[in-house]
Design brief:
Order of helices and strands: EHEHEHHEHHEHEHEHH
Shape: globular
Strand content: 5-15%
Low-confidence stretches: none
Number of domains: 1
Number of strands: 7
CATH architecture: Alpha-Beta Barrel
Distance between the termini: 5 Å
Number of helices: 10
Radius of gyration: 18 Å
Structural class: alpha/beta
Length: 270
C-alpha cells in the first residue's frame, strides 16, 4: 500500500449503519483513514481499535447535537462564525472550548492514544476563533495534526460549472481560503498532510479522484483523499434531523460507497 495516500472517510460513529458501511471499505483495505464522531454510536469502535492499519482522527462536531453534549444550542457554521461579533461571545467561547476538550478527552480515552489528530464536521475548525482555540490546546492535549481543507484548483469538465453541487463546493472553498488568511501562522506546525476532495465533496467518482490526486500529491507529504462512503437508510431516520438525514442518506453517498468498496480504487493505493 502506498503510504503517501490516505483514502479518508469522515463521519465514522455517527450511526451504526454509517459506521458499518465505512468499516466494510476498511475490511476491503480501500479506506485506510477515518475521522470519528464522539457521542453518537460506538458499536464499531472496538473493531477499529483492533485494526492498527487505519489512521484515526477526531471528527470534531459542534453542529449536530448528541446526548451528553455540553452545548445546548444548535450551531451552524454561519452561527459559529457570527458569534465572534456577538455581545455574549466570551460566554459561548467558554462553552465551546469545554465541548472541544470533552470530545478530545473522550476520543483519547476511548482509543487509548496519547496524541491526537483533528478535523471537523462541516469544517468548522477553519473559523478563525475556533482555529485559535485549537491552537491554544495544542500542547495540553498533544494535537499533532489539524486538517487544512485546501487543495490546488482543478475541474474535470466544463459541465461542472453547470452543476450546483460543484458551484456550492467552489463557494465553500473560496470561503475557507478567505478565512485561512486570519489564522495564526503557528498553524503550519500542525499541518503535514496535503488534501483533496473538497471540490467534489458529495459526488466523487474515479475521474474526480484521479484528477484530485494528480493535482495535489506532493513529494515528502501524505495526501488525504476525502470520500464519504458512510450512508444511512430509513431504518435510522429517527436518529437525525431532517436536513441531516437527507444529507447522510443521499444517492451520492451510496455512489461514493460503491466507489470506495470497488476494486478499481486499489490502483491508487498500489
Amino acid at each position: 500500500m502506498n503510504k503517501k495516500i490516505y483514502f479518508h472517510a469522515d463521519d465514522f460513529g455517527r450511526s451504526q449503519t454509517i459506521s458499518k458501511n465505512i468499516y466494510k471499505c476498511i475490511q476491503l483495505k480501500n479506506i485506510n483513514s477515518i475521522s470519528i464522531m464522539m457521542g453518537f454510536d460506538d458499536s464499531y469502535f472496538d473493531k477499529i481499535k483492533k485494526n492498527h492499519n487505519v489512521n484515526l482522527k477526531l471528527h470534531l462536531n459542534l453542529t449536530e447535537s448528541y446526548k451528553g453534549s455540553s452545548l445546548k444550542d444548535n450551531y451552524s457554521f454561519l452561527k459559529l462564525f457570527l458569534l465572534r461579533f456577538n455581545l455574549g461571545f466570551f460566554s459561548h467561547k467558554k462553552k465551546i472550548k469545554a465541548e472541544i476538550e470533552k470530545q478530545i478527552i473522550f476520543f483519547k480515552k476511548k482509543f487509548k492514544v496519547n496524541k491526537i489528530k483533528i478535523d471537523s464536521h462541516e469544517h468548522v475548525h477553519v473559523i478563525p476563533w475556533i482555529n485559535e482555540l485549537l491552537l491554544s490546546l495544542k500542547k495540553k492535549h498533544k494535537i499533532i495534526e489539524l486538517r487544512d481543507p485546501i487543495e490546488n484548483y482543478y475541474f474535470v469538465s466544463l459541465k461542472d460549472f453547470l452543476n450546483i453541487e460543484y458551484l456550492n463546493n467552489l463557494t465553500k472553498f473560496l470561503l475557507i481560503y478567505f478565512l485561512r488568511k486570519f489564522h495564526n501562522k503557528k498553524k503550519i506546525e500542525l499541518i503535514n498532510t496535503s488534501f483533496t476532495g473538497l471540490f467534489y465533496t458529495g459526488f466523487q467518482d474515479f475521474k474526480t479522484i484521479s484528477k484530485g490526486i494528480n493535482h495535489n500529491i506532493k513529494d515528502n507529504k501524505r495526501l488525504e483523499v476525502l470520500i464519504h462512503p458512510g450512508y444511512t437508510n430509513y431504518s435510522e431516520i429517527n436518529l437525525f434531523k431532517r436536513k441531516y438525514f437527507l444529507y447522510y442518506s443521499s444517492k451520492n453517498r451510496i455512489k461514493e460507497y460503491k466507489i470506495a468498496s470497488s476494486k478499481k480504487i486499489k490502483k491508487f493505493l498500489i
